[in-house]
Write a sequence for this structure.
C-alpha cells in the first residue's frame, strides 16, 4: 500500500547533545549505537536471507529529503551516478534484485512507465541490492531495461544507500519530487496503475 500519511516522527529519538557531558553523553551514545546495531541486524536478516518485502521498509522517509548517494552503474563502465545531479527532476527510485520474485512481477511496469514518462523529464533509477553482476545484468537483459535510452541501473555494493533509505526487504520504491523530497513510497510489487498515478503526482 502507498504510504500517503506524510512524514512520521521516529520513536525513541535521542538528542544531538546532552548538557553536562560525562556519563550522560556516554549513555546517549550507547543507546544510539545500540539502536543502529539493531537496525543493521534487521536489515541484514531481511536482505541476506532474501526475505519477502516488509511494510517497514522506508516508512520514515516520506516527507524528508531523499538521501543522496554516489553509486556505480551496473554495466561496469565506471560511471558514477549521484542522486543530487538529478534534483530538480521528478525521480522514481526502485530497490530491486534478480532473486526477488516480486521484482520480476513489477519490472515490466517500470519499463513501460519509463517509456511513457522519460520525455517529460522523469528520471528512473533502479538500485540493485545483494546481487552478483552477472545475475543483475541477466535480469536487466531479460526484461529489456532501456539503459541505452536513459533508464539508470546502479549497484549498492556496500548496502549504505539501502540502509539510508530504511529498506529491509525488496522491492521498495520511492517517489521523489523536484525539490528532492520523498513524497511517497511503495513496498512490494507495484501495479501499473499505482505506478502511473504516483509518477503523475511527482510530475506535477
Amino acid at each position: 500500500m502507498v504510504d500517503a500519511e506524510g512524514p512520521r516522527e521516529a520513536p525513541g529519538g535521542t538528542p544531538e547533545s546532552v548538557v553536562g557531558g560525562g556519563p550522560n553523553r556516554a549513555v546517549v551514545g550507547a543507546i544510539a549505537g545500540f539502536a543502529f546495531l539493531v537496525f543493521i541486524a534487521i536489515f541484514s536478516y531481511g536482505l541476506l536471507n532474501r526475505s519477502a518485502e516488509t511494510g517497514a521498509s522506508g516508512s520514515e522517509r516520506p516527507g524528508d529529503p531523499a538521501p543522496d548517494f554516489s553509486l556505480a552503474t551496473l554495466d561496469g563502465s565506471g560511471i558514477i551516478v549521484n542522486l543530487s545531479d538529478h534534483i530538480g527532476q521528478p525521480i522514481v527510485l526502485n530497490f530491486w534484485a534478480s532473486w526477488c520474485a516480486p521484482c520480476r512481477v513489477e519490472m515490466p511496469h517500470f519499463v513501460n512507465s519509463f517509456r511513457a514518462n522519460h520525455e517529460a523529464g522523469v528520471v528512473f533509477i533502479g538500485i540493485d541490492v545483494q546481487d552478483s553482476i552477472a545475475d543483475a545484468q541477466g535480469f536487466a537483459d531479460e526484461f529489456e531495461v532501456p539503459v541505452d535510452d536513459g533508464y539508470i541501473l546502479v549497484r549498492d555494493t556496500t548496502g549504505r544507500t539501502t540502509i539510508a533509505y530504511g529498506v529491509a526487504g525488496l522491492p521498495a520504491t520511492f517517489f521523489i519530487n523536484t525539490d528532492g523530497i520523498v513524497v511517497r513510497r511503495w513496498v512490494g510489487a507495484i501495479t501499473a496503475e499505482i505506478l502511473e498515478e504516483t509518477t503523475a503526482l511527482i510530475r506535477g
